[in-house]
Specification:
single chain, 3 strands, DUF6166, alpha+beta, 43% helix
């Protein structure tokens, strides 16, 4: 795989368990990450992704919007969220 070392990789095991290439920083979901909808697992995923790339105040200010705009759209199987795309989303979100 090519790309930035900071790119976020999301995948599922054969049993359907969600895994992500960033640590889980629990706030809403004690059971871990999820994506594809707007619940507590996706909220933790959004915050954890932003914390991996940004400072905590910025992550805390934007993670619910990031969840709605990005995390809810990730396919069930997972995928790759490019660090450059996340940073571009943040810059846009800061100006709106």
């Amino acid at each position: 795989m090519t790309g930035d070392a900071e790119d976020i990789v999301l995948w599922r095991t054969l049993e359907g368990e969600a895994h992500v290439s960033v640590p889980h920083v629990a706030r809403h979901s004690p059971t871990g990450f999820e994506w594809g909808y707007g619940g507590s697992g996706p909220a933790d995923l959004a915050r954890s992704i932003l914390l991996a790339l940004l400072d905590e105040p910025t992550a805390d200010a934007l993670y619910q919007r990031f969840k709605q705009d990005v995390v809810t759209t990730v396919p069930e199987a997972g995928g790759v969220l490019r660090a450059a795309d996340i940073r571009a989303w943040v810059e846009h979100a800061r100006t709106c």
